[in-house]
């Protein structure tokens, strides 16, 4: 089987690979000897504080939040509350055919192989968004679907993600779609209200049009998150100081040839989806056709 097919099968795997145990210890402060005790402490906080009513409380589900907050139950609980609030307030975003979101072409440039330092690297190209054929809600939904599928995979719970936002081609028609509601949703999906660690956000190829929207997004970002946003202008050499060229495509001075377009990624997830993935997406509110 070609390597790429094996990689796509792994995208729907919930296998806890023992080789990631050391990564989990280093990145997430996860100790196998105390894992069960910490999970139970998170459950106790959920029951006693009553600030959220999660649809699941099994070990695997709790681990998503603990790994994202370095196994500190109080912080994991706060994240879970924010995540449940996001789901309740934005239920309409889940009300769609999950695998029909392949139509959101070009906006999400694709995914690159995981780096031990940067996690999964995701490329976004909002300047290629066709505002006439793809509504902003579907752009956000596509990011939501990718996040929800990613957090089912233990490897990504541990490694997290790094996002590159290439704004080449962005114009006033694109900017006009970015309301405060949309900005808050995008920030939430970048890890503020979602159990997926976002190491850094790198913004490249932008112009004067964008100064106002940067401040629109900034108002929804905690200071610690804003401090992980890096602006590179048109300087890809600056980007390479943060991400090893081994994990960047040639257009940014890198050597990586494996950039998987998001529409291809969604199509392959659809092909390899199993019963667990289908039921999980449906329980979230997505429509998944058999």
Question: How far is the N terminus from the C terminus?
Answer: 25 Å
Classify the beta-strand content into a percent band. Answer: 5-15%
* Residue runs with pLDDT of under 50 for 5 or more positions: none
User: Can you give the mean pLDDT?
Assistant: 91
User: What is the N-to-C succession of helices and strands?
Assistant: HHHHHHEEHHEHHEHHEHHH
What order do the strands of the largest sheet run in, or round the barrel if closed?
A: 1-2-3-4-5
Radius of gyration: 19 Å
Category by helix and strand content: alpha/beta
Major beta sheet summary: 5 strands, mixed
From the structure above, extract its key features.
single chain, 290 residues, alpha/beta, five-stranded mixed β-sheet, 15 helices, 5 strands
